[in-house]
Prior knowledge:
By secondary structure, the protein is an all-alpha fold. It is built from five helices and no strands. Helix 2 packs across helix 4.
Amino acid sequence: xxxxxxxxxxxxxxxYLQEHSNPLNRTLHFVGTTGVIxxxxxxxxxxxxxxxxxxxxxxxxxxxxxHFVVQRNRPATFKYPLWSLMADFRMYGLMLAGRLGPHLExxxxx
Length: 110
């Protein structure tokens, strides 16, 4: 079964949420994104640009564990790298604000 190509980020967003339907997968993404933000903050405040090398360990490490182990699907970042990054930060912000639920419902995620 071939996957649809998305012409816009807004069309991609429901697909992204469906690929993150498992709450544990979303939690692992949240932890990984928090780690990336922390690494970035430390790198800037400590003026240590080499610390940025840890960002993929947190970001991809937790996210890919969420996909390969928990959700058992292929990360959307392989096909849609920029939109996946944007969607991850959008999902992160909505989770942080406690406002992800309606987006999940509109995407058909129970």
